[in-house]
Design brief:
DNA-binding, homodimer, Arc Repressor Mutant, subunit A, 302 residues, 33% helix
DNA sequence: ATTGCTTTTGCTCAGATATAGCAAAAGCAA
DNA sequence: TTGCTTTTGCTATATCTGAGCAAAAGCAAT
């Protein structure tokens, strides 16, 4: 049997909030995700990932979940060469920066932040992808639909967890420099955002999408929060992760109703306005029921 | 660098409805999942899985999605030996059975079917796991909670998509024969259900859980249905997958409201009662919006 | 002290959804 | 025609959700 022996590599998307910005742990000048090969002595893929990240960054990891596995082909022979198993990890930032550094994930994919601001979508991306859609008369209708769904055009809602689909579309259109289709466009038209080594930006998009989806049905945000926090800080964190704003009062109602948090009794007066109560995550809830996440109150109006 | 070369194996949980029973494709006398190594010439993991399943069973696959990747350890040296990438696939059964055969998944894990019937849970499982919980005074409270959540005891609702957690609990308690803890119990106390090769039953549980979860937020059931079907057949299918019954009228309202299906105009008179309209899945919806799945109407009372 | 600004917190209201049950419609079989 | 089955339509009630108003509680400057 022509069974193929390949090397296996672990790849980690490690997320933390730094200065109220969602960041990802990267290494090197051209950013790359922490990674390392599977080696003898590793008892599991998860343990191996932990070991590599901790060795490369001097940081302890909390939450860690498997993302996706894909195969790297040998370019010349189109033969499997190595297997990459990617993981998503959540932590709180520590004082020492270790070897690696935190990089704001909206510097790496600015189009994922739709909070009031750049106008990047309207000004740059929408025209480009729509032009691409029309450029092939046969598939135009289908392509238009795809653009509308992934980027929330034509009355479609913006869906935060379609991050991967959006990256794939930009890649296909050639709007990111790492795409083979990028030569078709003048460099000035490319979408801003720092590129990464290999297909790491794609893996990052996968992690982003997974995190945004997961947050909605499992209480994982708290892995990113300090021990004590105000509801506003929690909201800011979720808004930063989702890249969109939510209705404050409804958000509070949702969180309190679910009994995800409890008051510590202390207050935080450094808010600039009325002092806010401090809360902590009720860890017991993980054992008391199969707790849901923090659904973001949506807006009706488009 | 002591980089480890391992072999990679693909493993597939292929599901179809056969005679209104959810079944999984297995091979061999002691059931095992279709599998095969990653080989030169395979362009992707997904393609490799397709190839293997089609070769081993002579069956074309429709939907296919990656489940999970884990590493098999060399028992003696605790060194990684091979990587298994598991997939979940959905099809409709064809007339020819190929080499493999369909096996009802509730024969493999009877406890996952809670529709009126066996009383397996109350009579056999609940007492055993509660006894296990109490057997360690220190962890008793915690264990009791875990049992209650995973198996829906003490007022907790039964959650269909905790199939993996339930299997893991049974494994830990030693109620399944493949568990190393099974020696502690007399064989008559073991939970019924055919065992599988290696840890395939665990992989099956993973697939089951994923399918049950996925059905709720993406319209994948239709991959298991015939071209045309009555709403009752659709409901039967979902009930069989979820292993629990739902309120018929509300189910119909949910499905129609979402515009997931459209009438074909034809009727099916073979129902035994009033003839039912035939429907088909509106495939367009996949392109028109990011369509949701068929949420199962819940019941308030426990 | 008062005014203005900010943020937190409490509350309400209308529209939408969900659960549950009643009952008629439409077939077959005895 | 009667009894049985399944499909289908409809309604009452409870709950949830989106949206907005406004008071409470701090700080800073006047």
């Amino acid at each position: 049997m022509d069974r193929q022996a390949v090397s296996a590599e672990l790849l980690a998307v490690i997320v933390a909030m730094v200065d109220d910005q969602p960041c990802v742990l990267t290494l090197g000048a051209v950013p790359r995700l922490p990674a390392g090969p599977l080696m003898p002595g590793h008892r599991s893929l998860q343990a191996a990932t932990r070991a590599w990240v901790e060795e490369q960054t001097g940081r302890r990891l909390g939450y860690l979940e498997q993302l996706y596995t894909f195969v790297d082909l040998d370019v010349a022979q189109a033969t499997p060469r190595s297997l990459s198993v990617s993981y998503l990890g959540l932590t709180t930032p520590t004082a020492d920066t270790g070897i690696g550094g935190w990089r704001a994930w909206y510097d790496l994919m600015p189009w994922e932040d739709t909070r009031p601001g750049t106008g990047l979508l309207e000004a740059r991306i929408t025209p480009s992808i729509l032009a691409w859609a029309e450029s092939d008369p046969v598939q135009a209708a289908e392509r238009r639909q795809r653009c509308a769904i992934t980027f929330g055009l034509a009355g479609q809602p913006w869906q935060t967890d379609l991050a991967l689909q959006r990256y794939e579309l930009l890649y296909e259109v050639g709007l990111v420099p790492e795409s083979p289709a990028a030569w078709r466009l003048p460099e000035a038209q490319l979408v801003p955002g720092e590129r990464m080594v290999g297909d790491h930006r794609r893996v990052l998009a996968t992690g982003l999408a997974r995190l945004r989806a997961k947050i909605q049905y499992r209480p994982v945000v708290f892995e990113l929060m300090a021990q004590e926090f105000t509801l506003r800080q929690l909201q800011d964190c979720l808004e930063a992760l989702a890249g969109k704003a939510v209705h404050t009062q409804n958000f509070r109602r949702l969180v309190e109703q679910q009994a995800l948090v409890e008051e510590t009794g202390a207050m935080d007066a450094s808010t600039g306005g009325r002092p806010a109560r401090l809360y902590r995550f009720r860890r017991e809830i993980l054992q008391q029921r199969h707790a849901a996440g923090t659904k973001l109150p949506t807006t009706r109006g488009r």
